Structure formats: structure tokens, C-alpha cells
Amino acid sequence: MKRVKNSLARLNNLSAGVTTVLTLAVFLPVLVLCGFGLYAIIQYGYTLQFAIVLVATFLISYIPLLLLRRKTQAKTAERLISEDRLSEGRTPEDSLVKASADWSDAENAIWQRLNQKIEAQLAEDDEWGSLKTHGLVIANTTAQAFSRADFQFSVTDGLKLLEEVSRRYRVTLKENVPFVENIKVSHLKFAYDHQDQIETGKQAADLLSKAYRVYQFINPTAAIAKEVRNKLLGDMAGNVGANLQLNIKKAFLQEVAAVSIDLYSGRFSIEESDITKSTIAEEDENRRPDQLEPLRIAVIGQISAGKSSLINTIKGALDAEVSALPSTSEVHVYSCAVGDIEVLNLVDLPGLDGNERTNKTVLKHVTNADMVLWVLKANQSSRQLDRQFMLRLDEFYAHKDNLHRKKPVFTGILNQVDKLKPLAEWSPPYDLAQSDSAKVVTINKALDYNQKLLNFDTIIPTSFSTESKTWGQESLAQLIANNVDESINVQRNRQRLEGGNTSASEQLKRVFKGGKSLFKNLI
What is the pTM of this model? Predict the structure, then answer.
């Protein structure tokens, strides 16, 4: 019973909610019939009244649901158009295949374009026999997005692609297609081998149905009511089958797209066993890698923005046990435990000064961080150095070699807000929704200005000055805790990228094994 219930729920999801309408259409007339009483209808000649009530009852139930469905479809279309304009790479909420949390922003944008391509393909030709051609087009489109030639991957990667598409599609079918376990390959083969006979049988059944409908018109009133009901039920049943098949086809092509992104990003060249500690963590501390590296938080900003105050706050006020790791004169790394985070590497980077050497150092560490705290001096109007470095970061992630790199979580720390106007007013904590406070108004304007200029994932106001009352420690601690999961995804992405290709020694072992096999065949 539980399996039947789950299968019906899946069928309802796949058929865009039409199953609910079908349920009403089947059971509601039965309830109406019970209310009238079959005896009364025949005995007292209420056939016409019953037919009218039957049709009216069904229409009252069907029309609102039909309008609701059209409204939902219109909203979905508007959302897809909006997503296309924003190029944010999100997957529709009702999609059976979701975007991977390991993908970078560029890869999410590619995923969104591929979904639009799939929609266009199925709108033009949704035959089952066309899925192979559609799948090859999707794979080649993915290759072009990564600036690769068609089918530019190794034989082992190609085999893994086929294996992965099959594995993922199997999971998708089991989770979403009702009664899929009961569908045998022999059933599909029989239907394919006898498709001509099946089509002939359908035509014969249609002829018999039409003849029966003509016979029914001996009683015109009942016949008209039944024709209306059958027409509505037939349309809905057709929608169930059409939506079910369309979603299954779309899921297959989406699996091809998702696996192609993983393939051309190099993820399939790396086995899970090859994922080791990344290079940047080795520079922080030379030790054996744990399952997860210490969360790596880089602190950047212009000179005198307040980076040292921020780091001291994290080291002290957040109940952290700190130990300095070996580092250079420019980069200082502190290992500390904060709350539920077992180990945290806090990287103090040199201040942005426009120097090329400084920019290279900061760029290296920021692109190898899991989270970035970007400190801004609130009462400093010049943001040219910050803006220039952010543009440099955008160029780095837009480069074809870095499309598969996941950006760290960027958080703006608007520090020294106590020095914003009015200077005489400083009595934290402040409620940023309090519009009657002149200080709050100024802080909000500064937050909006810097957010629009640098487009952080999050920005918070703080003041860690030793000369006045501090503000923002709790917000900072909560922010770090909230971003841990996403930062772990960033770290995993970096580990996979640095897992590397098969080592030279491993290749020599393969040559040796291949040579032994060859000589055995020759002897």
C-alpha cells in the first residue's frame, strides 16, 4: 500500500498536478450519484436534471484548477525568462535533476544555458528516438562552453561518462517514476517489436468507440453529458501521459548535461582516492591531511582598513585557541578553534596598495581560500584599490582555465562605522531597521554603496576600535558559522582540482602491465 501511495505521489508531481484533477473527476460524479439515488433518477424522471448537475459539478471543480495550472505555468515562464536575463544558472525548482553544489558560478551559468537548450530541443522534437541526437548536441555544446573540441576526453573518461549517466538516471527514475520497478525490458521490447499491430489495434478501438458513441445518442441528454465528461477526462489523461514522458526525457538530457559539465571540468579525471590536501594548506602547515582541511579564511583590505583589529577580535573575543603557523613576512597564518569549527586557519594578507607584487600574493591566497573577509574602512571614500582588485578577481574566474573553480564566500566587513556621521553619536548595538536614527541612516547608506560597488555575498557593519565600544562580534561569529557549509564545498572543489592527473609512476605501472600482457600473447 505504501508503494502504491508513493507511486501515486510521484505520478502527481511528474504530471504537473493533473492527477489531482483526475481523482476529482473520477470520484466526484460517484458521490453525486449516491446523493441523488439511482432509483429516484429513473423513477421520477430526473435524467435531465442529473445530467446538468453532473456537468456543472465537474466544471466547478475543473475550471478553478485549470486556471490555477495556467497561472502556475505563466509564473514558471516568467521565472525562466528572468533567470535567462540574470544568467544566474539556477535550476527550476520542479526539475528532477539539480545543479551540483560543487560547481562554480561559471559552471552554473553553463548549466542554465544547457537547460534552455534542452527545453528548445524538446519543444522542437520530443520523440524518444531523438534523445541520442539531442544528447550528443548537449555534450558538444558543453565542450564549446569550456573551449574544448568535440569529444576531447580520454577513453577512460568517456566510459565513466556513460557509467555515470546510467547510474544517475537510474536513481532519478527510481525516485520519481511510479511503478518503474514493475516495468520489464521485455515489455518495452514487445511494444517496440509490435508497434504496427498496436497502432492498428488503437485505430480499431477508436472505431468501436465512435460507433458506441453514435449508439448512445438514442438518449441525447445523457449522451451529451457523457461526451462532455469524456472529453475533459480524455484531455487530462493525455496531459498526464505527455507530462510524464516529457519530464523523463528532460531528466535524461539534464543528466547528460550535468555529467558533461563534470567531465569537461576535469572532475572525472580524478578518483575520490586521489583527493589529497591542497598545496596552499601544505604551505600553512606541513602535516598529514585530515578528511577535511582547516577552514581557510583570508582577511584582505586596504592598508589601515582595520584588518589587524578584526583578526585580534576573532583570536580573542570568539573564545579561540590560537597558535601561529610558520609563514612569510608578508603573510601571517593563525590556527584557531572557533565554536563548532574544529580548526580554522586565519590568513592575514598584506594590505592592498596597488603594487603588482602585492596583488599577485593576495590573488594567490584569495583564490585558494574557502572564505574571504574583505575589510573596508567606513569613512574612507576612495575604493579604487578595492575595485581594481575585485575586477582582477573577476578576470581570474572568467578565464577559460578557471571556469570550473568555485569562488570562496566573499563577505564585506564595513569596519570603523563609529567614525561615520554624526560623530558624536555612538551607542551600539544598533537596529539597522530603525529609520529614525541618523547614525543608522548613515550606516545603511554606506552598506548600500559598498555592496553595489563590490557585489559581496554578504556585508555587515562592525567597529573593533580599542578607543570606543566595539560592535559586530556576534554578527561576525554567526556569519562565519552560517558560511561553513558553502566554504566546505569550495574546499572540496579546490581539492578535486589539485588531485591532478594520473602520476608518472602509475602510468609506468600500466605500461609494465600492458607489456607483460603483450608478451604473454606473443609467446
Answer: 0.56
